[in-house]
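With this grant's support, we have paired protein sequences with backbone structure tokens. One protein thus recorded is set out beneath this paragraph:

_____
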Amino acid sequence: MTYEQAVDYIHSLLAFGIKPGLTRIKALLKALGDPQRGLRFVHVAGTNGKGSTCTMLSHILTQAGFQTGLFTSPYVFSFCERIQINNQNIPKSDLAEFVGQVKDAIDRLHTVGIEPTEFEAITAAAFLYFQKRRCDYVVLEVGLGGRFDATNCIPCPEVSVITSISLDHTAILGDTVEQIAAEKAGIIKENGITVTTSAQDPVALKVLYETAQKRGNRFVLGRVEAAEILSQTVKNTVFTYAGDTYTLPLIGAHQIENAVGVIEAAKCLSGVSDADVREGIRRTVLRGRMEFRKEPVPTLLDGGHNPECGEALAKVLARFVPFHVTAVIGMMRDKDAARYLHAVLPYCETVYFTKPANPRAADPETLKALAQGMTAQAYVEPDPAKALRRACRGVSADGLLLICGSFYLLSDLEIDAGLYL
């Protein structure tokens, strides 16, 4: 199996859709020899901030000298981003090898009527890779929810981290914060450690605390109000917390909340020093999440897709960027596009609505209709590459190009390939 065949095979499993539940992943892992056993995990759930949190923790553990696995989703520029060791993407040859093993197991399961999904297949391939490379720790991001997510087949993690919880995927997880928090709290296992922050929604915080108490967990609450911001630019934030000073190369005050949770989680892991935490955070690179680039035109990339992400982006635009913002926006139709656009569009002078190459992508005409009255100029260009070229030509000398609304959009545009030069 080649890399291209491996990725095509994984994507072919999209036909089985999103099916919460642990029966299929447990059967698949059993067929593969249960590679998750013997690995030590840091498990991360939440609505917003999971990617940032996982990436910071991975850099900290790598800085501490541990062979550190990282499993996240979605990817931005390369499928291999989803599986990393020591912050390096899985080699294409290794991905092909382990997806080939997963395919063989799935073919056997099909004969008895078990049909694993795309996410379950890539989760299993990641576990095989981490086991084969003898990872000391694996930082594991939940895909959807927590209780019935494929990643929740692991033994009790060293730490369970729960980031900010809000309404998202309501058709699957429930339509109240309390219901969604209960699903996220499903990763809390008996006699573990649970970490969250004081910025958590009060309703969600109550659910998390009570679940942790019932399951005999030590409950650690990072005090976001104790963090003091010393300086902020479009490139980084310098802040103090619990007697230490940190330089966080991520934009937005919401990243302070994530960093506080990361600091408290890292303190719970043996073999990690305060210096490791400071340096790991300083070295963190987060692709496609309020990522600023200077060339070829000043560009801000943000794949955040729900209203809370939109509000965080709006705060950054209000504080750090010039008024003349030209945006390319594509979204998924299962997102609350109206609230997202309501937050972001007042800061955009010109917008090109487009359609990512994903079956869940929203119709750009629908997005334009939602945007009526929110921005000076709105256009529809269904082809993302053409939308980007048109937008790039319209960026003024004192302007900024904004590409946002979906990680799938960033991936389609192949930003690293210089498509918009």
The longest strand covers residues 41-45. The CA atoms of residues 252 and 312 lie 7 Å apart.
